[in-house]
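The instructor's notes for this session suggest beginning with a concrete chain rather than abstract definitions. Hand out the sequence below and ask the class to guess, before any prediction is shown, which regions might be ordered.
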Amino acid sequence: MKPKLITILLIVFYLISCKTNRDKEFRKSICGEWIFARVGCDNDKRNEEKKRGQEQVVLPPPIFENSNSRTGYIFYINNSCEDKRGYFKLIKSKSREERETLFLGTDTKYKVENDSLKIFDLADSIWKGIKIRSITSDTLTLEIKDTIFFKYAKPHYKIDKAQTFDMILVSTSACYGACPISSTCLDKNGNLIFYGQSFTSKEGLFESKIDKVLYKRIEQNFKKANIDTLYDRYSVNWSDAQTVTVTFIKDNKIYKTISDYGHKAPREFYWAYTSVNLLYQKLNLKPFATKGLIEFPRSYTYFENRGQICCLEKSESFYLFTEICKSKEVQINFEKKYVIEYRDTENKKKKILTDGRYYQLEQKNKTIIIDLGYNFLTRNNLLKKFRTKTVND
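After discussion, reveal the predicted structure:
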Protein backbone atom coordinates (compact mmCIF):
# COMPACT_ATOMS: atom_id res chain seq x y z
CA MET A 1 0.00 0.00 0.00
CA LYS A 2 1.32 3.40 -0.90
CA PRO A 3 2.58 5.55 2.01
CA LYS A 4 0.30 8.44 0.98
CA LEU A 5 -2.80 6.23 1.09
CA ILE A 6 -1.76 4.79 4.46
CA THR A 7 -1.36 8.32 5.81
CA ILE A 8 -4.84 9.29 4.60
CA LEU A 9 -6.39 6.18 6.16
CA LEU A 10 -4.63 6.84 9.45
CA ILE A 11 -5.90 10.42 9.46
CA VAL A 12 -9.46 9.26 8.72
CA PHE A 13 -9.25 6.62 11.45
CA TYR A 14 -7.92 9.22 13.88
CA LEU A 15 -10.72 11.66 13.09
CA ILE A 16 -13.38 8.97 13.46
CA SER A 17 -11.84 7.87 16.74
CA CYS A 18 -11.78 11.45 18.03
CA LYS A 19 -15.41 12.01 17.05
CA THR A 20 -16.46 8.76 18.73
CA ASN A 21 -14.62 9.67 21.92
CA ARG A 22 -16.10 13.17 21.78
CA ASP A 23 -19.63 11.77 21.48
CA LYS A 24 -18.99 9.48 24.47
CA GLU A 25 -17.80 12.43 26.52
CA PHE A 26 -20.82 14.51 25.50
CA ARG A 27 -23.20 11.67 26.45
CA LYS A 28 -21.62 11.51 29.88
CA SER A 29 -21.44 15.27 30.47
CA ILE A 30 -24.92 16.17 29.24
CA CYS A 31 -26.74 14.19 31.94
CA GLY A 32 -28.50 16.46 34.42
CA GLU A 33 -30.76 19.48 34.39
CA TRP A 34 -30.20 22.49 32.13
CA ILE A 35 -32.09 25.77 31.81
CA PHE A 36 -31.69 28.45 29.15
CA ALA A 37 -29.22 31.19 30.10
CA ARG A 38 -28.60 33.42 27.08
CA VAL A 39 -27.96 33.80 23.36
CA GLY A 40 -24.31 34.43 22.47
CA CYS A 41 -22.37 35.34 19.35
CA ASP A 42 -18.78 35.40 18.16
CA ASN A 43 -18.33 39.05 17.32
CA ASP A 44 -15.05 38.61 15.42
CA LYS A 45 -16.59 36.07 13.05
CA ARG A 46 -19.73 38.15 12.62
CA ASN A 47 -17.68 41.22 11.76
CA GLU A 48 -15.83 39.21 9.12
CA GLU A 49 -19.16 38.04 7.68
CA LYS A 50 -20.44 41.62 7.57
CA LYS A 51 -17.36 42.72 5.63
CA ARG A 52 -17.93 39.93 3.11
CA GLY A 53 -21.68 40.58 3.02
CA GLN A 54 -22.34 37.01 4.14
CA GLU A 55 -24.07 37.61 7.48
CA GLN A 56 -27.39 35.81 7.74
CA VAL A 57 -30.00 35.54 10.45
CA VAL A 58 -30.47 31.86 11.24
CA LEU A 59 -33.35 30.67 13.41
CA PRO A 60 -32.82 27.54 15.53
CA PRO A 61 -34.98 24.45 15.18
CA PRO A 62 -38.29 24.99 17.07
CA ILE A 63 -37.51 22.40 19.72
CA PHE A 64 -34.47 24.40 20.82
CA GLU A 65 -35.81 27.91 20.35
CA ASN A 66 -35.73 30.47 23.16
CA SER A 67 -39.45 30.97 23.78
CA ASN A 68 -39.50 33.78 26.33
CA SER A 69 -36.47 32.18 27.98
CA ARG A 70 -38.65 29.27 29.14
CA THR A 71 -36.55 26.46 27.68
CA GLY A 72 -35.26 23.75 30.01
CA TYR A 73 -34.31 20.08 29.87
CA ILE A 74 -33.36 17.16 32.08
CA PHE A 75 -31.21 14.51 30.37
CA TYR A 76 -30.97 11.04 31.91
CA ILE A 77 -28.32 8.41 31.40
CA ASN A 78 -30.80 6.00 29.73
CA ASN A 79 -31.34 8.34 26.76
CA SER A 80 -34.65 9.63 28.08
CA CYS A 81 -35.15 13.31 28.72
CA GLU A 82 -37.71 15.83 29.91
CA ASP A 83 -38.57 18.95 27.97
CA LYS A 84 -39.96 21.21 30.68
CA ARG A 85 -42.23 23.11 28.31
CA GLY A 86 -44.00 19.92 27.25
CA TYR A 87 -45.38 18.93 23.87
CA PHE A 88 -48.80 19.96 22.63
CA LYS A 89 -51.00 19.52 19.59
CA LEU A 90 -53.79 21.96 18.78
CA ILE A 91 -56.88 20.26 17.38
CA LYS A 92 -58.31 22.83 15.00
CA SER A 93 -61.97 23.09 14.06
CA LYS A 94 -64.17 25.45 12.10
CA SER A 95 -66.11 25.92 15.31
CA ARG A 96 -64.14 27.81 17.95
CA GLU A 97 -65.98 25.92 20.70
CA GLU A 98 -64.69 22.57 19.40
CA ARG A 99 -61.02 23.49 19.42
CA GLU A 100 -58.86 21.82 22.03
CA THR A 101 -55.25 21.37 23.07
CA LEU A 102 -53.85 17.85 23.43
CA PHE A 103 -51.05 17.41 25.94
CA LEU A 104 -48.47 14.88 24.73
CA GLY A 105 -46.37 14.98 27.89
CA THR A 106 -42.93 16.25 28.84
CA ASP A 107 -40.97 13.00 28.63
CA THR A 108 -39.24 12.07 25.38
CA LYS A 109 -35.97 10.59 24.02
CA TYR A 110 -32.61 12.05 23.06
CA LYS A 111 -29.33 10.89 21.56
CA VAL A 112 -25.88 12.32 20.97
CA GLU A 113 -24.18 11.49 17.70
CA ASN A 114 -21.78 13.24 15.32
CA ASP A 115 -21.25 16.08 17.80
CA SER A 116 -24.99 16.84 17.78
CA LEU A 117 -27.80 16.67 20.31
CA LYS A 118 -30.97 15.16 18.86
CA ILE A 119 -34.32 15.22 20.66
CA PHE A 120 -37.47 13.45 19.51
CA ASP A 121 -40.24 16.02 19.04
CA LEU A 122 -43.48 14.35 20.17
CA ALA A 123 -45.65 16.92 18.40
CA ASP A 124 -44.10 16.39 14.95
CA SER A 125 -42.88 12.80 15.52
CA ILE A 126 -39.41 13.58 14.17
CA TRP A 127 -35.88 13.93 15.51
CA LYS A 128 -34.60 17.50 15.68
CA GLY A 129 -30.91 18.15 16.17
CA ILE A 130 -28.45 20.88 16.92
CA LYS A 131 -24.65 20.92 17.12
CA ILE A 132 -23.00 20.77 20.53
CA ARG A 133 -20.20 23.29 20.78
CA SER A 134 -19.06 22.35 24.28
CA ILE A 135 -20.16 20.99 27.66
CA THR A 136 -18.51 21.92 30.94
CA SER A 137 -19.55 21.11 34.49
CA ASP A 138 -22.07 23.97 34.55
CA THR A 139 -22.53 25.18 30.94
CA LEU A 140 -23.99 23.56 27.82
CA THR A 141 -23.34 25.47 24.58
CA LEU A 142 -25.38 24.63 21.48
CA GLU A 143 -24.30 26.08 18.15
CA ILE A 144 -26.95 27.61 15.88
CA LYS A 145 -24.39 28.55 13.24
CA ASP A 146 -20.72 29.51 13.28
CA THR A 147 -21.38 32.84 14.98
CA ILE A 148 -24.52 32.26 17.09
CA PHE A 149 -24.99 29.90 20.02
CA PHE A 150 -27.29 29.16 22.96
CA LYS A 151 -25.94 28.75 26.46
CA TYR A 152 -27.68 26.60 29.06
CA ALA A 153 -26.71 26.52 32.72
CA LYS A 154 -27.03 23.97 35.52
CA PRO A 155 -29.62 25.37 37.96
CA HIS A 156 -28.96 25.51 41.69
CA TYR A 157 -32.33 25.34 43.40
CA LYS A 158 -32.75 25.99 47.09
CA ILE A 159 -35.43 23.45 47.93
CA ASP A 160 -36.91 23.03 51.38
CA LYS A 161 -37.11 19.25 51.64
CA ALA A 162 -39.29 19.47 54.74
CA GLN A 163 -41.96 21.55 52.97
CA THR A 164 -44.88 19.40 51.82
CA PHE A 165 -48.44 20.14 50.75
CA ASP A 166 -51.67 18.25 51.41
CA MET A 167 -53.17 19.41 48.13
CA ILE A 168 -52.37 21.46 45.01
CA LEU A 169 -55.12 23.06 42.91
CA VAL A 170 -54.65 24.62 39.46
CA SER A 171 -57.38 26.58 37.65
CA THR A 172 -57.30 28.23 34.24
CA SER A 173 -59.53 30.93 32.76
CA ALA A 174 -60.72 31.83 29.30
CA CYS A 175 -58.70 33.98 26.90
CA TYR A 176 -59.21 35.53 23.48
CA GLY A 177 -58.68 32.23 21.74
CA ALA A 178 -59.05 28.55 22.56
CA CYS A 179 -57.31 28.40 25.95
CA PRO A 180 -58.39 25.30 27.93
CA ILE A 181 -60.71 26.34 30.79
CA SER A 182 -60.50 23.88 33.67
CA SER A 183 -59.66 23.16 37.30
CA THR A 184 -57.56 20.33 38.70
CA CYS A 185 -57.17 19.24 42.32
CA LEU A 186 -54.41 16.84 43.39
CA ASP A 187 -53.85 15.56 46.92
CA LYS A 188 -50.88 13.82 48.51
CA ASN A 189 -52.70 10.47 48.48
CA GLY A 190 -52.92 10.56 44.68
CA ASN A 191 -56.59 11.55 44.40
CA LEU A 192 -57.41 13.82 41.45
CA ILE A 193 -60.57 15.82 40.70
CA PHE A 194 -60.86 17.47 37.30
CA TYR A 195 -63.46 19.94 36.07
CA GLY A 196 -63.35 20.54 32.31
CA GLN A 197 -65.35 23.53 31.13
CA SER A 198 -64.37 24.56 27.60
CA PHE A 199 -61.70 23.73 25.00
CA THR A 200 -60.88 20.54 26.88
CA SER A 201 -61.00 16.98 25.58
CA LYS A 202 -63.24 16.08 28.54
CA GLU A 203 -66.03 18.35 29.78
CA GLY A 204 -67.66 17.86 33.15
CA LEU A 205 -66.55 16.74 36.59
CA PHE A 206 -64.27 13.69 36.87
CA GLU A 207 -61.99 11.91 39.28
CA SER A 208 -58.94 9.70 38.91
CA LYS A 209 -55.82 8.49 40.70
CA ILE A 210 -52.12 9.17 40.25
CA ASP A 211 -49.30 7.41 42.04
CA LYS A 212 -47.60 9.13 44.94
CA VAL A 213 -44.31 9.26 43.03
CA LEU A 214 -45.92 11.48 40.39
CA TYR A 215 -47.45 13.71 43.07
CA LYS A 216 -44.01 14.12 44.66
CA ARG A 217 -42.55 14.99 41.27
CA ILE A 218 -45.24 17.64 40.72
CA GLU A 219 -44.72 19.00 44.23
CA GLN A 220 -40.96 19.10 43.64
CA ASN A 221 -41.46 21.03 40.38
CA PHE A 222 -43.43 23.70 42.22
CA LYS A 223 -40.86 23.87 45.02
CA LYS A 224 -38.15 24.61 42.44
CA ALA A 225 -39.97 27.92 41.89
CA ASN A 226 -39.37 28.75 45.59
CA ILE A 227 -43.05 29.24 46.41
CA ASP A 228 -42.50 31.34 49.53
CA THR A 229 -40.65 34.02 47.56
CA LEU A 230 -43.20 34.28 44.73
CA TYR A 231 -45.59 37.23 44.53
CA ASP A 232 -49.30 36.60 45.02
CA ARG A 233 -50.02 38.04 41.57
CA TYR A 234 -48.22 38.29 38.21
CA SER A 235 -49.61 40.14 35.21
CA VAL A 236 -48.66 41.23 31.70
CA ASN A 237 -49.66 44.68 30.45
CA TRP A 238 -52.05 43.56 27.71
CA SER A 239 -55.62 42.24 27.67
CA ASP A 240 -57.35 39.00 26.64
CA ALA A 241 -54.68 36.69 28.10
CA GLN A 242 -55.34 33.61 30.23
CA THR A 243 -55.20 33.65 34.03
CA VAL A 244 -53.85 30.63 35.89
CA THR A 245 -54.35 30.42 39.66
CA VAL A 246 -52.60 27.89 41.88
CA THR A 247 -53.56 27.20 45.48
CA PHE A 248 -51.42 25.20 47.91
CA ILE A 249 -53.10 23.50 50.89
CA LYS A 250 -51.00 22.73 53.95
CA ASP A 251 -52.24 21.52 57.34
CA ASN A 252 -55.79 21.50 55.91
CA LYS A 253 -55.86 25.21 55.10
CA ILE A 254 -54.86 27.55 52.30
CA TYR A 255 -51.11 28.09 52.53
CA LYS A 256 -50.72 30.35 49.50
CA THR A 257 -52.49 31.25 46.26
CA ILE A 258 -50.65 32.64 43.23
CA SER A 259 -52.33 34.20 40.20
CA ASP A 260 -50.51 34.38 36.86
CA TYR A 261 -52.08 36.47 34.09
CA GLY A 262 -50.43 36.07 30.69
CA HIS A 263 -47.78 33.58 31.93
CA LYS A 264 -45.70 36.32 33.52
CA ALA A 265 -44.58 34.24 36.52
CA PRO A 266 -41.06 32.71 36.72
CA ARG A 267 -40.44 29.85 34.29
CA GLU A 268 -40.18 27.16 36.99
CA PHE A 269 -43.68 28.04 38.21
CA TYR A 270 -44.98 28.09 34.61
CA TRP A 271 -43.43 24.67 33.92
CA ALA A 272 -44.99 23.21 37.07
CA TYR A 273 -48.58 24.34 36.55
CA THR A 274 -48.61 23.66 32.79
CA SER A 275 -47.96 19.97 33.37
CA VAL A 276 -50.83 19.84 35.89
CA ASN A 277 -53.66 21.58 34.06
CA LEU A 278 -53.48 19.10 31.16
CA LEU A 279 -52.54 16.05 33.21
CA TYR A 280 -56.10 14.70 32.99
CA GLN A 281 -55.50 13.71 29.36
CA LYS A 282 -52.99 11.08 30.46
CA LEU A 283 -55.35 9.50 33.02
CA ASN A 284 -58.29 7.14 33.20
CA LEU A 285 -61.16 9.41 34.26
CA LYS A 286 -64.52 8.46 35.73
CA PRO A 287 -67.43 10.74 36.67
CA PHE A 288 -67.04 12.44 40.03
CA ALA A 289 -70.03 11.78 42.28
CA THR A 290 -71.25 15.02 43.86
CA LYS A 291 -74.16 13.17 45.48
CA GLY A 292 -76.42 15.67 43.76
CA LEU A 293 -75.36 18.25 46.29
CA ILE A 294 -73.99 21.07 44.20
CA GLU A 295 -73.15 22.36 40.74
CA PHE A 296 -69.60 23.65 40.46
CA PRO A 297 -69.09 27.36 39.60
CA ARG A 298 -67.95 28.49 36.16
CA SER A 299 -65.45 30.99 37.61
CA TYR A 300 -64.53 32.54 40.91
CA THR A 301 -67.05 33.08 43.75
CA TYR A 302 -67.34 35.43 46.68
CA PHE A 303 -68.92 35.63 50.11
CA GLU A 304 -71.15 38.68 50.56
CA ASN A 305 -72.49 40.30 53.72
CA ARG A 306 -74.25 43.70 53.67
CA GLY A 307 -72.29 45.10 50.75
CA GLN A 308 -68.99 43.65 51.91
CA ILE A 309 -67.48 40.83 49.83
CA CYS A 310 -64.62 38.37 50.13
CA CYS A 311 -63.52 37.27 46.66
CA LEU A 312 -61.96 33.85 46.15
CA GLU A 313 -59.59 33.09 43.32
CA LYS A 314 -60.86 30.43 40.93
CA SER A 315 -58.62 27.72 42.43
CA GLU A 316 -59.79 28.71 45.93
CA SER A 317 -63.42 28.49 44.80
CA PHE A 318 -62.71 25.04 43.39
CA TYR A 319 -61.19 24.05 46.74
CA LEU A 320 -64.29 25.23 48.65
CA PHE A 321 -66.68 23.34 46.38
CA THR A 322 -64.65 20.11 46.51
CA GLU A 323 -64.70 20.41 50.30
CA ILE A 324 -68.49 20.81 50.26
CA CYS A 325 -68.80 17.68 48.12
CA LYS A 326 -66.74 15.69 50.61
CA SER A 327 -68.83 16.83 53.60
CA LYS A 328 -71.99 15.41 55.15
CA GLU A 329 -75.60 16.53 55.14
CA VAL A 330 -77.03 17.63 58.51
CA GLN A 331 -80.24 19.01 60.01
CA ILE A 332 -79.43 22.18 61.93
CA ASN A 333 -80.39 25.83 62.30
CA PHE A 334 -77.57 28.34 61.82
CA GLU A 335 -77.06 32.06 61.25
CA LYS A 336 -77.22 32.74 57.53
CA LYS A 337 -74.63 35.49 57.65
CA TYR A 338 -73.22 35.29 54.11
CA VAL A 339 -74.56 34.61 50.66
CA ILE A 340 -72.59 33.04 47.82
CA GLU A 341 -73.93 33.70 44.34
CA TYR A 342 -72.46 31.97 41.30
CA ARG A 343 -73.29 30.53 37.90
CA ASP A 344 -73.25 26.77 37.42
CA THR A 345 -72.18 24.65 34.45
CA GLU A 346 -75.34 25.62 32.55
CA ASN A 347 -74.79 29.30 33.38
CA LYS A 348 -77.76 29.33 35.75
CA LYS A 349 -77.56 31.62 38.77
CA LYS A 350 -77.25 29.72 42.06
CA LYS A 351 -77.27 30.87 45.66
CA ILE A 352 -75.80 29.40 48.84
CA LEU A 353 -76.46 30.69 52.37
CA THR A 354 -73.68 30.11 54.90
CA ASP A 355 -71.99 31.16 58.11
CA GLY A 356 -68.65 29.80 56.88
CA ARG A 357 -69.16 26.30 58.28
CA TYR A 358 -72.71 25.35 57.28
CA TYR A 359 -73.91 25.71 53.67
CA GLN A 360 -77.60 25.77 52.73
CA LEU A 361 -78.22 24.67 49.14
CA GLU A 362 -81.36 24.49 47.08
CA GLN A 363 -81.39 21.31 45.00
CA LYS A 364 -84.42 20.00 43.08
CA ASN A 365 -86.93 21.89 45.25
CA LYS A 366 -85.24 20.56 48.35
CA THR A 367 -83.23 22.45 50.95
CA ILE A 368 -79.98 20.76 51.94
CA ILE A 369 -77.54 21.83 54.68
CA ILE A 370 -73.94 20.70 54.47
CA ASP A 371 -71.56 20.70 57.43
CA LEU A 372 -68.00 21.45 56.35
CA GLY A 373 -66.78 20.58 59.86
CA TYR A 374 -64.93 23.87 60.17
CA ASN A 375 -65.34 27.53 59.25
CA PHE A 376 -63.82 28.04 55.81
CA LEU A 377 -63.39 31.79 56.31
CA THR A 378 -61.68 31.74 59.70
CA ARG A 379 -59.48 28.68 59.09
CA ASN A 380 -58.14 30.20 55.88
CA ASN A 381 -57.74 33.67 57.40
CA LEU A 382 -60.10 35.19 54.84
CA LEU A 383 -62.07 37.61 57.04
CA LYS A 384 -59.38 40.24 56.49
CA LYS A 385 -60.02 40.08 52.72
CA PHE A 386 -63.52 41.52 52.93
CA ARG A 387 -63.97 44.82 51.06
CA THR A 388 -66.75 47.01 49.79
CA LYS A 389 -68.57 45.62 46.75
CA THR A 390 -68.24 47.69 43.57
CA VAL A 391 -70.22 47.89 40.31
CA ASN A 392 -67.54 45.72 38.65
CA ASP A 393 -68.11 42.78 41.02
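Then share the key points. The domain at 3-153 is CATH 2.40.128 (Lipocalin). Confidence is low (pLDDT under 50) at residues 9-18, 54-62.
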